[in-house]
Backbone:
């Protein structure tokens, strides 16, 4: 491999690593979309998209970063998933108190009436309960994070 090709591969790997770090930060802070402009390079990342294929396409460069293959099975899972949405503004808590085990974990099967989380609003603890039996596919909010009415809290699959 020529020295120029080796440098290009290393640069591309570094770019991919940085993109993954940005995406992880977006997930942990509940940011759904971000756009970054650096000189003649534009990067736009969306956590949720209506499109079936998500491509990250740098402008004025001759390569495309494609992470679709790794996410194909998770996208198929998400197609049959439903969302549990926050009904109020507040702070999202996964457990009843600090140090206590969480109400639910990813992969858990819960029945109707099971407490999923607490949203604290104006010092009032509001329990969010399951309206029917389902499996928790993904927990979308981090413990202690602020949520607004309409924020997606969980992805679930009805059983």
Residues:
């Amino acid at each position: 491999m020529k020295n120029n090709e080796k440098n290009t591969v290393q640069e591309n790997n570094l770019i991919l690593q940085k993109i993954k770090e940005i995406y992880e930060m977006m997930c942990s802070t509940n940011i759904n979309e971000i756009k970054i402009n650096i000189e003649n390079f534009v990067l736009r990342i969306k956590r949720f998209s209506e499109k079936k294929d998500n491509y990250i396409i740098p402008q004025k460069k001759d390569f495309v970063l494609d992470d679709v293959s790794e996410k194909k099975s998770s996208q198929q899972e998400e197609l049959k998933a439903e969302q549990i949405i926050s009904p109020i503004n507040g702070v999202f808590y996964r457990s009843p108190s600090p140090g206590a085990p969480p109400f639910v974990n990813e992969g858990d099967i819960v029945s109707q009436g099971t407490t999923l989380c607490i949203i604290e609003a104006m010092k009032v603890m509001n329990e969010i309960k399951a309206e029917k039996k389902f499996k928790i596919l993904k927990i979308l909010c981090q413990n202690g994070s602020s949520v607004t009415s309409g924020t997606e809290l969980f992805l679930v699959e009805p059983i």
Q: What stands out?
A: The helical segments are 3-29, 68-79. Residues 3-29 form the longest helix (27 residues). The two ends are 53 Å apart (CA to CA). The chain is about 25% helix and 30% strand.
